[in-house]
Every structure is written in structure tokens, then in C-alpha cells.
Design brief:
By secondary structure, the protein is of the alpha+beta class. It has ten helices and eleven strands. The strands form four sheets. The chain has a five-stranded antiparallel beta sheet with strand order 1-2-3-5-4. The longest helix has 19 residues, at 146-164.
Length: 280
């Protein structure tokens, strides 16, 4: 990837950082490694538009944790964030080199660290229900099978059931998975939060279908059941509700990626496996 133009001197001065080194680009932002006034490194995330899109609440959530289980947030403005530099490997990297079970243990340790205080909802975050409004109001391409349609009907039914009576509603990271957790001098820490209010069990729902490049594990029904048992016990959430949230989140992700028109998606088989293995 060609390195983009450097951040402006005005922007670097605003955040009191120097020596930007391009690291990565996501769909909506670029990440730079920069040096702070005390010579320590930091991650500088600069959004490509004039705002942070739907990620702004995530920085409020991370800031509210004061570095407990998460990367510290040093400074933000309307479309930039300066945060703790995490030097080590991600849990996604750990999985991709063969350490899936160890990564699962480390992930739930991070989740517990983030939620150890069960904090009051002192920050203003969007509610999980808003993410799911009309998300399963889908259209299907002509080649889509009835089994796929039935699976999305199951997702809709489970979502209706779960939202009818959410339990243990707290502030959530909202996108806690293997590639959003990296090692640092302070241990494994989460970053790239979405910031949402919802049922605590939802916090780990997205991790079942992650990380990217870990298909040999993700598509294994035994792994799915192993994670359900491990995470429901260690995170102290209801096993069946966790199963259901994992299914709903998988269907939600497919729906969002498909813009409401289901043609073909690599996770359709994964959704089918989740539903059949869970036997809901």
C-alpha cells in the first residue's frame, strides 16, 4: 500500500505529536504511529471524512474505562483520535498462528476486565435496538434457497425474543473480537470500540465469527460449542442467550454487508452451522 500524504503540521501541532509513520488504512480512517512530547509512541487515527461516522461513541466508551482493559484515549477532536500505542500481536494473530484456544481464554479475560465494575450507564451511548431496526427486513436474489430464507427468519425471531426482555443492560464495547485486542506493556487491551448500550451477553457475540483468516477454526461446530461453554461460564452469562446472540449477530453482519439484498455471502454457511449446532 502506498503511504498517503502526511498529516498536516497544524494537525500534528494540535495533538502535540511528531514523526508520523503510516501504519494502516481502514474503510473510513488512516492510522499513524506518532511520537508524543514525552517521546512515547501513540496511535493517531485520522478519519477520511469530517467526522468519525458511527465510531464516535466508541471513544466515549473507551475514555470512560480509564485504561482498564482498553487502550487509553489521550485526545480527540471531531475526526481524529490519539490513543495508546499497542506494540504486540493481536489475538487474531494468535489464532492465525494456531493458538485459537489460548486466544479464547485471553479474550474473555479482557472482556471481564472491561466489565469488572458493571458500571452505571453514566455516558450517553446509542442503544443496541437501534442497530437492529429493520435489519432483517430483507430481499433475496432469485438463486437464494429457502433454507437461507428460513435461517434469516430464525434470526428475526431470536432478535425479537432477545430484545423483548434484555438482561443486565450495560455500556458495551460493541465490537469486541480478536483483531480488536492487542498485546501491550500492560497486557492485552481492547480498542476500536463502537460504544453501545445493551445486554451484557451481546459483548462477546461477534467474537464467534472471528478472526479473519481463521476459517479452519470458525467453521468448526466443535469450536462454536467450546466457546459457548467457556465464555458463558467465564463471563457469567446465560449459555442459551449467548448462543442466540451469536446467531443474531452473524445474521446482522451478513444483512448489513449485503445492504438488505441477500445474494451470496461467505458467512451464509456459517450462519447455517450456528443455527444447526445450537438447535434453537
Amino acid at each position: 500500500m502506498t503511504s498517503p500524504n502526511l498529516p498536516t503540521e497544524t494537525l500534528l501541532s494540535e495533538f502535540c505529536v511528531t514523526d508520523p509513520e503510516f501504519v494502516d488504512e481502514t474503510g473510513i480512517a488512516r492510522i499513524w504511529k506518532v511520537k508524543r512530547a514525552d517521546k512515547s509512541f501513540a496511535a493517531f487515527k485520522i478519519y477520511l471524512g469530517d467526522n468519525m461516522k458511527n465510531e464516535a461513541p466508541g471513544f466515549e466508551f473507551l475514555r470512560s474505562k480509564n485504561g482498564v482493559g482498553v487502550a487509553e484515549i489521550y485526545q480527540t477532536n471531531h475526526n481524529c483520535a490519539l490513543m495508546e500505542w499497542l506494540e504486540g500481536e493481536s489475538l487474531g494473530d494468535m489464532v492465525r498462528r494456531g493458538g485459537d484456544q489460548q486466544a479464547a481464554i485471553e479474550l474473555i479475560k479482557v472482556a471481564n476486565s472491561i466489565h469488572q465494575d458493571r458500571p452505571e450507564l453514566a455516558i450517553d451511548l446509542p442503544h443496541l435496538e437501534t442497530w437492529y431496526e429493520n435489519v432483517f427486513d430483507l430481499k433475496y436474489a432469485d438463486n437464494i434457497s429457502q433454507d437461507v430464507k428460513d435461517n434469516f427468519a430464525t434470526c428475526q425471531h431470536l432478535a425479537d425474543e432477545l430484545f423483548a426482555q434484555q438482561r443486565d443492560v450495560v455500556a458495551l464495547h460493541g465490537d469486541l473480537h480478536h483483531d480488536n485486542i492487542k498485546h501491550s506493556a500492560r497486557g492485552f487491551l481492547a480498542f476500536d470500540a463502537k460504544g453501545i448500550v445493551g445486554e451484557r451477553a451481546y459483548e462477546i457475540a461477534n467474537a464467534f465469527r472471528n478472526p479473519k483468516g481463521g476459517d479452519i477454526y470458525i467453521q468448526d461446530p466443535a469450536r462454536f460449542l467450546y466457546l459457548v461453554e467457556l465464555w458463558s461460564k467465564e463471563f457469567d452469562v446465560d449459555r442459551v442467550r449467548l448462543l442466540k446472540w451469536a446467531i443474531v449477530k452473524c445474521g446482522w453482519s451478513i444483512s448489513r454487508a449485503s445492504d438488505g439484498l441477500i445474494k451470496n455471502h461467505k458467512d451464509l454457511d456459517l450462519l447455517d452451522m450456528f443455527i444447526k449446532t445450537a438447535k434453537v
